[in-house]
Amino acid sequence: MASLLISASSLLAAPDGGPSRVLSPGHLRIEDGVIAEVGEGRPAGEPGVDLDGGLLAPGLVDLQVNGFFGYDMMDAGEDGWHTVVRRLPETGVTAFLPTFITAPVEAQAAALRRTRDLLPGLPAGGSRVLGVHLEGPFLTERRKGAHNAAWLTDPTPEAVATLLETGLVRLVTLAPERDGALEAVRTLTAAGVLVSVGHSDATAAQVAAAADAGARKVTHIFNAQSGIDHRAPGVAAQALADDRLSPGLILDLHHVSAPVARLVFRAAAGRVVLVTDAASAAGMPPGDYELGGQPIRMPEAGPPLRADGTLAGSGLRLDEAIANAVGIGVDPVTAVDAATRVPADLIGRPDLGRIAPGAAADLVWLGPDHRAHATWIAGENVFGGDHE
């Protein structure tokens, strides 16, 4: 569809490039997959799509998706990749970073090469693949979480170069206290890779040093990291206090409790990034699945677990994370921004995550329950609405 006019009773937009705000009503015009015009009120012409109720928002951007719909992204074949990119719009996600957790460096490099070869054949109209997030293997054993300790290692120049070879790596989670980590942060940053502190027992000072070297994110705040101690602050404390860092938050209300999630939004106002950390069990019934080649169990309620009870990713949808944020008292504009504009800007994609002239026409219509009722990618309806 070359041109499309959409009218909505409520539209979350940044029409003048400023902060996001709700236009009630609002409208936008799409030309060749790009937003050409955004305005307040009803449009002058007859809209091709007229949305009554809910909120028309930018398409959601998830920077941490280990898997979904029964497939682990690191091990998935062509069928798995096609399923995930085709179905993520059901959750409102229009762009994402597939996440490969800890494995031997050569195994991760092989997975990156397989991914490079798969990407050109992905179906049109699926969620955009923004690159790959490597969560490990440069993590600390003391905060390994569900990662295999036998595969954890230092970020040597050789290891970093091997992983950068395909050009697909866009985000790396590492522990800054490991030998060679600060030099790795500088190398990765110079290569255009976003660096996130995670699975780390670092002190606040060590995290600040990582930020000095170029780190700009913290992976799933409060999970698998040193926390807030009034005399010995760690990763979580620095994530909240340092304006250079954007804390990722898994808001399924299991990984982080509601009062602490409210604290994160208040202390890191405008910096919070909602992520799912979804495992292959996400979108699936209870049963046995895999995360990074290791078995996990999806229970009847709550997130997936390792056999020893360790949390192993989540079964969260990103639209559900927005609903949970609103449910604990976060302003809806702030909640949606945390799943759209903030992660898009952080990953260096200002053409995504916003409804503004010149941005990609990636949109999600969130119902009163804040779940995705319809999704558009590059102006094409790919889920709900009039999609067949």
From TrEMBL:
<feature type="binding site">
    <location>
        <position position="231"/>
    </location>
    <ligand>
        <name>substrate</name>
    </ligand>
</feature>
<feature type="active site" description="Proton donor/acceptor">
    <location>
        <position position="277"/>
    </location>
</feature>
<dbReference type="GO" id="GO:0006046">
    <property type="term" value="P:N-acetylglucosamine catabolic process"/>
</dbReference>
<feature type="binding site">
    <location>
        <begin position="311"/>
        <end position="313"/>
    </location>
    <ligand>
        <name>substrate</name>
    </ligand>
</feature>
<dbReference type="Pfam" id="PF01979">
    <property type="entry name" value="Amidohydro_1"/>
</dbReference>
<feature type="binding site">
    <location>
        <begin position="223"/>
        <end position="224"/>
    </location>
    <ligand>
        <name>substrate</name>
    </ligand>
</feature>
<feature type="binding site">
    <location>
        <position position="220"/>
    </location>
    <ligand>
        <name>Zn(2+)</name>
    </ligand>
</feature>
<comment type="similarity">
    <text>Belongs to the metallo-dependent hydrolases superfamily. NagA family.</text>
</comment>
<dbReference type="InterPro" id="IPR003764">
    <property type="entry name" value="GlcNAc_6-P_deAcase"/>
</dbReference>
<feature type="binding site">
    <location>
        <position position="255"/>
    </location>
    <ligand>
        <name>substrate</name>
    </ligand>
</feature>
<keyword id="KW-0479">Metal-binding</keyword>
<feature type="binding site">
    <location>
        <position position="146"/>
    </location>
    <ligand>
        <name>substrate</name>
    </ligand>
</feature>
<dbReference type="GO" id="GO:0046872">
    <property type="term" value="F:metal ion binding"/>
</dbReference>
<dbReference type="InterPro" id="IPR011059">
    <property type="entry name" value="Metal-dep_hydrolase_composite"/>
</dbReference>
<feature type="binding site">
    <location>
        <position position="135"/>
    </location>
    <ligand>
        <name>Zn(2+)</name>
    </ligand>
</feature>
<dbReference type="InterPro" id="IPR006680">
    <property type="entry name" value="Amidohydro-rel"/>
</dbReference>
<protein>
    <submittedName>
        <fullName>N-acetylglucosamine-6-phosphate deacetylase</fullName>
        <ecNumber>3.5.1.25</ecNumber>
    </submittedName>
</protein>
<keyword id="KW-0378">Hydrolase</keyword>
<keyword id="KW-0119">Carbohydrate metabolism</keyword>
<feature type="binding site">
    <location>
        <position position="199"/>
    </location>
    <ligand>
        <name>Zn(2+)</name>
    </ligand>
</feature>
<dbReference type="InterPro" id="IPR032466">
    <property type="entry name" value="Metal_Hydrolase"/>
</dbReference>
<feature type="domain" description="Amidohydrolase-related">
    <location>
        <begin position="56"/>
        <end position="380"/>
    </location>
</feature>
<dbReference type="GO" id="GO:0008448">
    <property type="term" value="F:N-acetylglucosamine-6-phosphate deacetylase activity"/>
</dbReference>
